[in-house]
Amino acid sequence: MDGPAMADVLDINDAVDIDVEDEGDQSVLRLKDKVVKRKGRGFGSGERREHENIRGYESIDAGDHGDEPGPQMSVEGWILFVTSVHEEATEEDLCKKFSDYGAIKNISINLDRRTGFLKGYALIEYGNYKEAAAAREALNGSSLLGQTIGVDWCFVKGPKKTKKRSKRH
């Protein structure tokens, strides 16, 4: 492939007014000295990158669950992943079952485009860890419309990875 890729950009550092007929090769060399090749996105003319300008952004207070393995909070709250949900279950059915354990912030169910039925899973969001943990504990393995559902955390941080050294023989 000849020439720069689509993400490559040639940026001229200073405004250069060159009359090619008057100066010939010298003007081309001066122009080449002023050109800087940049790759990727997010660069401006002499400006700092956007991510360097952002300070004090909103972060999640991890509380007691920071670096430990286990459930992790999303940006909005604590989300439970409900599996094996009956295809004819409705948002109202899920709300009735899960609202006994606390205020539900959001219920997300996905429908199959072709059939119009539930795909078999749902996401239920609580604003509080204790409510979500109580619902998970009580409803995992329970029945909804005659079908046993599974309830677990949507976001889980696994154990810390350790490097294993293999011995060569």
Automatic annotation (TrEMBL):
Q: Give all residue intervals belonging to the RRM domain.
A: 78-156
The record, for SMART domains, names: RRM
- Region forming the signal peptide: none
Specify one Pfam family: RRM_1
Give the coiled coil ranges. none
Task: Give a yes or no for keyword Kinase in this entry.
Answer: no
**Location of the protein in the cell:** Nucleus; Nucleus speckle; Cytoplasm
User: What Gene3D superfamilies does the database record attribute to this sequence?
Assistant: 3.30.70.330
Top-level lineage group: Eukaryota
GO cellular component terms, alphabetically, are: cytoplasm; nuclear speck
- Gene Ontology biological-process entries: mRNA processing; mRNA transport; RNA splicing
Which Gene Ontology terms cover its molecular function?
mRNA binding
Keywords assigned by UniProt, alphabetized: Cytoplasm, mRNA processing, mRNA splicing, mRNA transport, Nucleus, RNA-binding, Transport
User: What InterPro entries would the database entry show?
Assistant: Nucleotide-bd_a/b_plait_sf, RBD_domain_sf, RNA-bd_8, RRM_dom, RRM_RBM8
Tell me yes or no: is Transport among this UniProt entry's keywords: yes
Chief location category: nucleus
Subunit structure, as described in the record:
Heterodimer with MAGOH. Part of the mRNA splicing-dependent exon junction complex (EJC) complex; the core complex contains CASC3, EIF4A3, MAGOH and RBM8A.
Protein purpose: Core component of the splicing-dependent multiprotein exon junction complex (EJC) deposited at splice junctions on mRNAs.
PANTHER family associated with the record = RNA-BINDING PROTEIN 8A
Q: Which family does it belong to?
A: Belongs to the RBM8A family.
Name the chain's protein. Answer: RNA-binding protein 8A
